[in-house]
Amino acid sequence: MLVHFFEVRNCTFESYKGEPVLFAPYDIDDDTLMKRGFRRSKEERWYRPVNMKEYSYIVYWAQYGDVDINDAASQNINNFNMPMPYVQRQQNDNTANILCYVSVGLMALGFPMSILGTILVGGLFFIAALVLMIIVRVKYPQNQFGKVLCIVYIVLAAIAIILTIAAMIIIAIVCNQFIQDCESCCHNIPG
Amino acid sequence: MIIHIDTSYKLIPPYVVMIVIACAVGIAMQYIMNRKRGIDKKIAGFVALLSPFMSFFFGLLLTYVSSGGKSFGLSSIGGLVGMYGSVLTLALIVGDKEKSRVMFENCTLALPLMYSVSKLGCLFAGCCHGRPYSGPFSIEYTGKVTEAGGVFPVQLSETVVFFLIFAAGVIMFAKGSKSAVYAVFIASAAAKGLLDFTREDHIGKIVSLNQILCFVMMIVCIVYLVIKSKKPAYAGVIKAEQ
Fold first, then answer.
1. In Å, how far are A14, A33, A66, A110, B42 from A5, measured between CA atoms?
2. Entry pTM
3. According to its record, what are the GO cellular component terms (chain B) (predicted)?
4. pLDDT confidence of B162, banded at 50, 70, 90?
5. CB contacts, 8 Å: B19 with chain A
6. Which of these ranges, A13-27, B76-90, B167-181, has the smallest mean pLDDT?
7. Nearest-angstrom CA–CA distance, B222 and B235
8. d(CA B86, CA B172)
């Protein structure tokens, strides 16, 4: 059985380091493979890990022969939802939620820490909160808390960028005004 | 030819404008290249989200540490560390060597463009200007920053040199040169280190902190290249065949 993954035809469906993957044939150019999410293994073979939905789709259609994965099939793959074992999903959600709570805590501490310490300490908390949110979004993409947190942080990041630019402009204007006032003051001193 | 620059401004300081444009251009360039080279939309987006904060943080941190905790300012090398820091963070989270390599390459290619644009801000603000100089293209500052005579156009030189490094790097990379990224990195570190000799701050110093950091970066890159060249390109295949 072969899998035709978009323009990467004749891929083999195998196991690599315990994970189901698609191995590309040798005659496909690197750019096409990278565009389609293939990675190079230590043995210089190009492979692409398949997610749970793709795995279920391939396993189901393999009984009828070669499997085609293309734009037309991608909608079917998304709807091809084999339920994840309950315990595994529960554990993933717990870990992701803990990371999200820690992230929210760090974000909440960021502002007071930048006032009590320096802006650098607050910045460190803010970056750590962002990194934890990214870990949740990458490792546990289905977690709802992570999704909400991502949107909230993007909005907060946009506000932070706008406020930082505004603060830099205000500081520059105040300094400029201060220097101009000093110059005019010094000019008026007799002698 | 003498260039006159008035550093006084009415409302919005040109320095802030150019720094913001530089960040936007660099991060947009990095995002586009990441997407073109097969990095997931989500990962490329997270790199773009994290990099302005990390570069701002490390930019401030370097000046804070180097001044002994006395002052804050934006350091370009700190910004560079922040840009690489954001890529490294995502590389560690994703845990994919191939994607990490692609992201590091794209970051290296975009950085000279970012630096080139940001130095226009320094040129208009008159900060980190050059030594006293009266030759062609010398700059005479008036307004907020007033110098007695002309100074060397170090910021303008950096803008031109780094744009040329960026353009050459992109052309080499587009033509399939595998050494383009390393060439860009080494050329950038060398240009930054050498042009630092022409700064006014450098008077009375043998080497500046920036030059030491540039030298360290060059050495690290060269050592990496030497180690890489000694390792057979198809070590994995040979091992598999054995």
1. 14, 10, 11, 45, 21
2. 0.73
3. plasma membrane
4. very high
5. 168
6. A13-27
7. 21
8. 25
SS3 sequence of chain A? CEEEECCEEEEEEEEECCEEEEECCCCCCHHHHHHCCCEECCCCCEEEECCHHHHHHHHHHHCCCCEEECHHHHHHHHHCCCCCCHHHHHHHHHHHHHHHHHHHHHHHHHHHHHHHCCHHHHHHHHHHHHHHHHHHHHHCCCCHHHHHHHHHHHHHHHHHHHHHHHHHHHHHHHHHHHHHHHHHHHHCCCC
| B57 CB within 8 Å of a chain A CB | yes
The tens digit of pLDDT for each residue in A95-118 reads 889 999 999 999 999 888 888 878
- Domains of chain B: which residue ranges? 3-163
Whether the CB of B178 is below 8 Å from some CB of chain A: the reply is no
Partner B contacted by A51 (CB < 8 A):
no
